[in-house]
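Translate sequence into structure tokens.
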Amino acid sequence: MQGFIEKSRKLRDLYGASLILSYLSFKLVKEVEQRLGEGSVISPGLVHVLEGMPHRILVRGHLTREIVRNTLLKEWQKILKVCRKWIEDNIGIPKEQYCWAQTEGQTGKEKGEWERWGEYTWEVFWGSGDSPRAAMEDLETRKLKRDWTAINWLGESSSLSGTDAIAWHRLGEKRDLNQDLTPEEKLQLKEEQELFYRRLSWLLDDPDKHVSSNSHPSLDELKDYEKKNKDNPHGIGRYIAVNERLSIPELVKRLVTLPRLAKHIGMTELEEGFKDIAREQGYWTGWFIGDGDQVGDKLITLAEQNPDDPERRDASLNRFTELMRDWGSKFKENQDLFPAGKGRVIYAGGDDFLGVLYSEETQTQEKPEKLKPIEAWNWLMKLPEQWKDLQAEVKRELDIDFTYSVGFVWAAHSVPQRDVLQHCREAEKRSKNLGRDRVTIRVVFNSGQYVQWTCPWNYLDILTKYRDRNGVNTQEEIEKGTKKTANWNHLYSDWATLKARHAVQLKEIEEVTINKEIAVTIFNLYFDDAGKQFEAARLWDKLTEDNTAVAIVNWIDDLIQVGWQLCRNSEP
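Result follows.
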């Protein structure tokens, strides 16, 4: 499921993937309740809420893997069929030219490309036991054996993933591979594929108008349309750019964000006013992925409680996931979470969430306002306030300490979205590996290089204690509200000079021991003696991977690198 989400080029892909995953899990839960009765689903809670439905389901009662798999595939195949039929009914290509799906005569004998995707996209894992813990452990054991069938996909690779075949009407066409195509035949196929995608892009730009017109413009007419509308504030290629070539699942993720198709399937509709990310030169974006810490262990803890009272035990498990899902729903719908027009929560299932801070594409020819680094920093500083009430409720009702680890990526405009998501996952994993209940901030440049800093949430405000020694404010300036802007360039320059002269070292060198004193002295100088406070309270162990000199110096270096990128020339 993680891979299904992360193979994404546009924000719309992420939404489409999350909509599909929530829908499939929701349908599984409904099937369970229909077969085993209401209340048979122990986890997740809020079984009647479709959006943000987790994919791990704990059930009381007997349910076979075949039932689960058949339900999942039936609903997935329904999505595929609706999307395929919409294209075939509206794009204006004669039915006899389609090679990408089964014909009536092939049913039950030979699968087409759409049927293969319908059969082999998902892995399904099922475990059972005489208690919730036994079932969870059996599931983890069974997951060690993969449930994957590899298919030799035929055709040219899509422009998005580069590994799956391009979806178009001649995908799957049979021909003699020993017979080379003539230059004329190659040109014809290229033009047919181009017509397919340009016409599909045109249809989706204004589906209400273009579908109802029942017109099917030629390749030349489409090129004229694109030239005339290239400066249109609504733009062209809202759903699919004319130069994109997508595989079947990539195409489906785009199509389910079309409200009419989502409604027909029965999934959550993406609002009509959705705007994608402005990713032109100079526009940075902030991406965040969060995950509850040791949720599996907490579920096992609850599963072991009240062994003589199964109903109470199961109620505690249900309540835990219910609280998280309720929080996730409110978190996603919170209108005050971001600066106006500068952020979205893409998915929030309770114990995990995904979102982005960005500048929305405008409805005018004016450029959107850029999201400033300091805005991203100030937003991130306040993020833990979002789950304080959840933590208190989980502690009060279930006596469980609950925390989140987050990966936050501040990405330059040219970094591919799928690379950004991978950086987010790595940053989140680093937060967990270094102690949990913390955030890793990673700044990723167009070159692919990055700097990062990991800090517990409780100490994240350390950057706000920065004081520029070349511009210290007088008491009068503070009282009058005319404080000097913090200038991180001074600290950054001093630190770089010390590293260049080897007064500060980040790595152990043979016969040269790292001395942390100069680094800590600089840290104290610019951050109101924070290093002395950490030393006195023995906090370095919590802040760093260990309490060694090399760990402390590197933590300070990471802080300065990230702080300069997000806070320079701006007052936190």
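Note: Residues 11-36 form the longest helix (26 residues).
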